[in-house]
Amino acid sequence: MTVGTLIPYRDRRLGDVERLYLYRPDDADMVVPDTIRKCVVFLGCQDINGSYHVKGTAFLVSRPMYEKGDGDFAYLVTAKHVITKMRDRGIEEVSVRMNYNHTDAQWLKSKISKWRFHPTDEAVDVAVLSVPDLDPWGLDQACLPWHMFSDAKIIADGKLQLGEEVFMSGLFSEHYGKNRNIPIVRMGNIAAMPEEKVATELGPNEAFLIEARSTGGLSGSPVFINLEPTRHQNHSRLVFHLLGLMHGHWEDEGD
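The structure corresponding to this sequence follows.
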């Protein structure tokens, strides 16, 4: 009898933390891993006729309950202005459109009062909603793990510089999917580092400026940085971090 040796597939694309698979994952050769699109959901509201209207993008993140594991906390994250604009119109429930494994996408309701903003700085364009464990729901979604979040150390170490390639995954309101959410991916580059706060409608905000094409609906989209785009052609060496979320864009009124 011959006993073979099981060699797991090692993947470090999500935040440079090793994940082991029994078999090579289907997205191993993809430039954008499935998790990047599966973390995205669409936000909207329901009118008096029962029709839903998409308004923006949110994404799922998770962090461990305890240092040694034993489960995760899960959250929905979006831009604060997506929530407040609905609230200011008198809307009391934010509808969240999620993909399922064995049925069409479904709209789930959340009380607008349950979304939380920054406790002291009103200019921070972030809103967060705590959500229950996703596993029993049969969802075809994924949470971004906590270790994918970028921090000041990446900048301090010189890993993140002007011109670096970024990309976002989110809503294209003209084609969001009839039966399933279909997030689009847009590419761009860092045009300015957060050396000083940027003036926004909410007030001075710490932000990166990026050069990228944008349309309505991308507000709240997760924005990722790939620190290995030109340094390695081997996809197994790609490393993605969550840079932040999409705040907004300047309109260019062309001829």
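The mean pLDDT is 81.
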